[in-house]
Amino acid sequence: MSGLETAFAVLIALLSALGLVTASRILEGPDKRRRQFFVYYTNLSNAAMLIGHVLLLIPGPLRAMLRTSTGRYITLLCILVTFVIYFFVLTRFGRHPGLNALGVRRFSNVIVHYLVPGLTAAEWLAAADKSGLGLKDALAWLLVPLAYLAFLLLRARSGVVIRNTGSLWPYGFMDREALGRKKWLRNIALTLAGFFAMGLALLGVSKLF
Fold first, then answer.
1. What is the pTM of this model?
2. What percent of the chain has pLDDT over 90?
3. Could you give phi then psi for residue 167, rounded to 5 degrees?
4. Distance (Å, rounded) from C-alpha 200 to C-alpha 49?
5. Tell me: the pLDDT tens digits for 24-80?
């Protein structure tokens, strides 16, 4: 790997680790620790950035796979969704009551929703292979949100309510019981369509570099 790639990998791994530790509040004691932490896409995507960028520092087949144009493309989309959903959907452009201008209550929110996605985007623009990307890659990217949806469906079957939401679902726009089947399916379809559009938009950006 180039020196620039290595620098990005180290910085993003460290930052995502810091974000996960502070967001989980594990260092604040057992009474403060957030339970059911990894039911949220934000935390799973930041964990993926941590693991993926650590693997980029280790020679071998996994590093080779992650350094391909498809690997880098899916990596960026995986964490970019964290910013997009948080800023545009969950906090309504940062205007949700009780939040500051960035739509955050704690500095850990800045790390996991803004800094890690922003640095990963900078890494992709400055150091990643973007050659040969096409429609097949935009379709392959959809496997990530579909896998998360499958995880939530299986988890909901357990009947264990998420403490922070009082629901079987981590996000209101995915709450099947509250929305009803028709609205739930509509939201899932619109979300996947939006994710596919993001993938296509990133393909367009890749052609500029």
1. 0.90
2. 75
3. -140, 170
4. 22
5. 877 666 665 677 899 999 999 999 999 999 999 999 999 999 999 999 999 999 999
